Amino acid sequence: MMEVYRHKSRMQVKQNRTGEVEYLTFPLLEQTGLVRHLFSTRIGGVSEGIYNSMNLSYTRGDRKEAVDENFRRIADVLGCKVEDIVCSDQTHTTNLRVVSHEDGGKGIVIPKDYRDVDGLLTDEPGLVLATFYADCVPLYFVDTKNRAVALAHSGWRGTVSRMGHCVIEKMQEVYGSKAEDIVAAIGPSICQDCYEVSEDVAEAFIREFHMPGQEQEILISKKNGKYQLNLWRANEIILTEAGVPREQIQVTDLCTCHNSEYLFSHRASKGKRGNLGAFIGLL
Fold it and tell me: Do residues 187 and 132 make contact, with C-beta atoms less than 8 angstroms apart?
């Protein structure tokens, strides 16, 4: 397996290989015994050029046949069919959609009949949720008591709008979930060292994260109108404030930008890239 740059000494994300496909999993999610899940890497697909090799986007210019095969390989690793996977339609909203087996295959083998959906939820075993990334934050959720799962895309817009809290509220509404029963993971994405933002973005976070000490935890001022933003810590704060116990949250130790040969990064590639995928489904 490719050696990757990690931010912590204790492994938070586990590297795995099945055949040619390298992928990442979270030990806390595995320990629930309730789900199959993964976060893809660039390794083990058939795409070429800037999409090399496990690109999971049909909209960035890659060959459809290559993306089809990449999804088939991911499905094999997950032990499902592509017809069991349902895809998001991400536009940096906090819109959520509850999905069922009737949605299986949407975004891969059949067109999506929904738009502007950045998070998916289900309580149906066998259905696999899928969301897509190249620096933004994947959020995984498992309700260990009511047996439901969710997956959400949270870039800076989703994070400042508290996507993680929105997901937990929706799980409470639909499944009767309690935050203390949820196990969550914050997936590979851009780290604070790599994520420079403008003053208007920083100000939006300062307004939203106003509890004592929070600004210092998530923002570093560079004294030139630019800031370094910690999306990992911001999302962790959101989940804990929503009631998820800290010991039930696993935070990534892998930065997409630092590891751009292993993980697609929009910032490192200046937009010339494919997409990674996050996947989760109930067994």
Answer: no
Residue 166 contacts residue 237 (beta carbons within 8 Å): no
Residue with tokens 């949270």: 154
Please give the Cα distance from 144 to 241 (Å, whole number). 19
The C-alpha atoms of residue 77 and residue 80 are separated, in whole angstroms, by 8
Residue entry with tokens 């938070």:
12
Cis bond leading into 53, ω under 30°? Answer: yes
pLDDT one-digit tens code per residue, 183-195: 999 999 999 999 9
Tokens for 123, please give them. 């309580």
H runs (alpha helix) in 161-213: 163-175, 199-208
pLDDT (tens digit, 9 = 90+) per residue, 41-83? 999 999 999 999 999 999 999 999 999 999 999 999 999 999 9
C-alpha distances out from residue 13 to 146, 180, 247, Å:
25, 22, 15
